[in-house]
Amino acid sequence: MISFRRPSKQATAVVLALAEEPAAWRYGYELCQRLGLEASSLYPVLMRLADRGLLETAWESDVPADRLPRHRYRLTGPGRVLAGRLAAEPPARPTPARAAGRVRRRPRLEGT
Amino acid sequence: MSRTRRLGLVGGLAAVAVAATPFACLWALQARDAEPPPANVVLDIAIWTAVFGTPAMLAAWLLWRAWWRQAGQRLSALDGPGWLLAAAAATLPVDRRHWGPAMAAELTQVQDRPARWRFAAGCARTALFPPSGSRAAVSVTGALAAGAIAAAAVLTGAALPAGRLFALVLVGLLGGLATLAVARSRWVGWTAPGPALTGLALAGVTACLGFTIYYLAEHPSYGGVDRAAAVSLPPVTAVVLAVALAGCLGLALRPPRWLLPDRKARWFGIAMAVALVGGFLLDARLVQPGRNPGSHGMMGYLFNGPLLVILPGSALAAAVGRSLRSGLWACAWAVVLAAPLLITAWLAEALHWDQVGRGAVLDGAGPMGVGVNLGDAVWWPLLFLALWALPLGVLGAAAGSWRARRRRSRQQARLAPTA
Predict the structure, then answer these.
(1) b/e string for B342-360 if b means 16 or more Cβ within 10 A?
(2) Residue A19 touches partner B, C-beta closer than 8 Å
(3) CA B24 to CA B381: how far, in whole Å?
(4) Residue B105 to residue A69, Cβ atoms within 8 A
(5) Confidence band (pLDDT; 50, 70, 90) for A104?
(6) Three-class SS of residue B222?
(7) What are A26's strand-pairing partners?
(8) Of these four, A56, B101, B150, B366, which has the most CB atoms within 10 Å of its CB?
């Protein structure tokens, strides 16, 4: 049983994106493009998820000699449990500032 | 000429120019202060400056060449965003080291130039400020640091006004370093370089701090050259001393990852620091009293000590570790440890020299008051360690590793026909 504290919006988006195809490996830049996140937002989220054992990381194997091996990510078992809980929860209520339209909303996940 | 070679050459020349800059400044300052400045005096100073500067320039060239040989091929293929990311990734803490190559590999997937810059800048920001394990620990450390700065301001204002700036800068730097260390680490705690080294550094910094406080309390000023009272610890000197002590403590308690791996080098560093400071004390107590009072000080030792200790010590460390790096690490640790210890030894000896009427420790000049030694004890050992001992250590390490490499290749050549 994992302890549950609602993650940030970016972390939620990353977890849900990874949970769409739980068995598939994803790449950092691919996630940035898909979620419209900057690298400065994505990588801290990935680091935290990996620290908490929610994210499995692995290096690409069988890479051509002229290319660097890429780091791949997918959710672990507890990560998938968290994704299920996040998907089942109602979305967080917007803050007054967001509701007033003063803060630019982050791009939403495809299909949400 | 290939791009890699051209960049290597330009970088090497830039490194030499950077190494020569402090010596050019010293020459300009001395030539300006020489009264009157006849051409032969200026030339004389120029020759001496060149003699002292040559090891530093050679060392800069050797260091650049060794680094470029290892990393040049890879780095010369990088563009601006690649350089930015590589430089930032080099600062990642040990427990997050693998994220550097992970981000660098993703950068190769970004084609558009503005997007490459944006991606590299985002990765660099993450590398410089990776998420910390405990925000509470960062907040507590920051609050403690702020409290310590306030306490230092109040305490020195009441009890030690001459040391106020020194205390504020030192406490501020230590608090900042502690907060940064906690913020950049996944786990609270540290990887110290071993109890002997950390203990020696702590002892050196504590003793140096004790003597500085004593001097500031008892001898806050002295009769200057023109007999007008001069402050024992002027503002610039106070800042330099605080930076040096905070730097030594920071390196000994939380060293960068590239200084850690070689255990033997650390022991060589400890041995060289102890030998350098021991030699200083022996020279001050046994050799100097036999000379004419007023004609000699410890300036000669600052020149000879590193020649006798750091140069061969670093060469030996490199030969034993069979690599340039072992010698460089040993030399770096020796300088880090020797800095507070030499200042302490200088200040301690100054009290003794004053008692027996031998004048200032630097050159035996006097009597101006014992307070004159505080500024000398900060500037001269630090200058000689940075501009003389470190370059000699690099040259020694290069010589030691060259000998080890030659011996290895001879052994391989001897084994080859029998194989």
Answers:
(1) bbbbbbbbbbebbeeebbb
(2) no
(3) 19
(4) yes
(5) very low
(6) strand
(7) A73
(8) B366
Mention the CATH class of domain A9-99.
mainly alpha
Instruction: Quote the CA–CA distance of B343 and B382 in Å, as a whole number.
Output: 8
Which chain B residue has the Cα nearest residue A69?
A: B105
Classify residue B206 as exposed, middle or buried by CB count within 10 Å of its CB (0-12, 13-18, 19+). middle
* pTM of the complete model: 0.78
Rounded Cα distance between B325 and B401, Å, is 9
**Cα gap B258→B71, rounded to integer Å:** 15
Rounded Cα gap, residues B49 and B383, in angstroms: 13
Identify which of A27, A43, A48 has the shortest CB distance to residue B123: A43
Half-sphere exposure of B309 toward its Cβ, with a 13 Å CA cutoff? 28
Element spanning A57, H or E: strand A55-59
**Residues in CB range of B278: below 8 A, 6 or more apart:** none
Parse chain A into domains and list their residue ranges: 9-99
- Decide: B133 and A51 in contact? Cβ < 8 Å: yes
Closest CA to A48 of A5, A90, A88: A5
pLDDT of res. A54: 92
Rounded to 10 deg, the angle between the A77-88 and A9-20 helix axes is 110
List all residues 6 or more positions away from B154 whose beta carbon is below 8 Å from its beta carbon: none
* pLDDT, position A44: 92
Nearest chain A residue (CA) to B115: A38
> CB of B315 within 8 A of CB of B404?
no
Place of tokens 């917007």: A94
DSSP codes, B36-104: S--HHHHHHHHHHHHHHHHHHHHHHHHHHHHHHHHHHHHHHT--HHHHHHHHHHTTS-GGGTTHHHHHH
pLDDT score recorded for residue A106: 44
Nearest CA in chain B to A70: B105
With CB atoms and an 8 Å threshold, state whether A67 touches B108: yes
Is residue B340 within 8 Å of residue B243, measured between CB atoms? no
Q: Are B354 and B376 in contact (CB under 8 A)?
A: no
pLDDT-flagged residues of chain B (< 70): 1, 34-37, 133, 186-192, 224-229, 287-296, 366-367, 416-419
H or E stretch covering A73 = strand A71-75
